[in-house]
Amino acid sequence: MAEQSAEIGFKKDTVSKLLSCFFKEEKTKLSGDAALLMAEMLKIFVQEAAVRSQKQAESEDCDQVDIEHFEKILPQLVSSSTGSTKWGF
């Protein structure tokens, strides 16, 4: 039986509302394209966190990913998303 892969992501409206909470001025607007782009970036960020957590669990010979594995990779995930990347961008 073939494995089915469902596309999971963030809703554009949810991302828009979340980002709007951080706008300093009430009249600041977010375009639909910007919300879609941010939703895609969030999806990639979460996927990367899942992959790194799985690798951490495997390195510890664990069959299941626990919150401790996520907590161990979180500093590198956050620092790599806020600083320069390995390609120097």
Automatic annotation (TrEMBL):
Keyword presence, Transmembrane: no
Keywords, alphabetical: DNA damage, DNA repair, DNA-binding, Nucleus
Top-level taxon of origin: Eukaryota
Family of this protein: Belongs to the CENP-X/MHF2 family.
GO biological process, one term: resolution of meiotic recombination intermediates
Keyword Amino-acid biosynthesis among record annotations: no
GO cellular component: FANCM-MHF complex; Fanconi anaemia nuclear complex
GO molecular function: DNA binding; protein heterodimerization activity
Stated name of the protein: Centromere protein X
Assembly information from the UniProt record: Heterodimer with CENPX, sometimes called MHF; this interaction stabilizes both partners. MHF heterodimers can assemble to form tetrameric structures. MHF also coassemble with CENPT-CENPW heterodimers at centromeres to form the tetrameric CENP-T-W-S-X complex. Forms a discrete complex with FANCM and CENPX, called FANCM-MHF; this interaction, probably mediated by direct binding between CENPS and FANCM, leads to synergistic activation of double-stranded DNA binding and strongly stimulates FANCM-mediated DNA remodeling.
UniProt xrefs under Gene3D superfamilies: 1.20.5.4980, 6.10.130.30
InterPro entries in the cross-refs: CENP-X, Histone-fold
Classification via Pfam families: CENP-X (PF09415)
Subcellular location field: Nucleus
Biological source species: Seriola lalandi dorsalis
